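Sample intake sheet
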Amino acid sequence: MGRFTKIVAGVFGMTLLLSGCAMDSLGDPVDASPEPGQENTLGTITAGVLTVCSEIPFEPFEYEDPADPEKYTGFDIDIVGEIATRLGLELVVVDSDFDALQSGLSLATDKCDLGASAMTITEDRRANIDFTDAYYDSLQSLLVAKDSGITSLDDLAGKSIGVQKGTTGEIYAEQNQPEGAQIVGYPSDGELWPALQAGQIQAILQDQPVNVIHARTDAAYVVVAEYQTDESYGMALAKDKNPELLAAVNGALAEMRADGTYKQIYDKYFA
């Protein structure tokens, strides 16, 4: 559980999806085409397959498995892997642009059945997508170089604050930035984190668990502030398109909480 072969978004990924070709958790090809007479009762894009879009990397939620770069792992990946198993479906994970996910585009165009990418439930996003029940509560936080002398947002007047585009971290930074500060948006944490290390920005404002991982892996950086924003993550589905799958995913989540499986996965990453 927790290690699944990755499919890179773009022409290659879409070709795999449209042709019904996927990989299993061992990296071997599997035929995701419907078996003769196989019913697709959950209305997934491909019968027997749960196709999940996730913007990668965003450790510890989704990232390349360090033990095998051909696979993805992380909290979100483990959660959707368990859900797929309980629904009797093969899991396929597609690397996707976060903005296309949170806007609903990836879901409305049948690129994926489900979006699982540390996505905060907001009313604005509800206008374009359906959310599952919440499965994680989060904070925002500020990551800086340990020797920067920065201890709060106020110290960033006249400096640059890095954020991921389309996220609640970007919204919080825009609403609370000190005078003269510049908000610099990046497509993903994969560009955001190296920009801080290279000195191109002076801080990162984003979800607390991700910044904590960076501080743990590089002692030159520290989380100096956390912001209580009452955020909860949900998984996303196309708006008003598949109530059967939405109910099934919520049911699997409830079962996982009741039988202790959710806690086991949570403790693996956050204990």
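Comment: The chain has a mean pLDDT of 87. Residues 260 and 266 are 10 Å apart (CA to CA).
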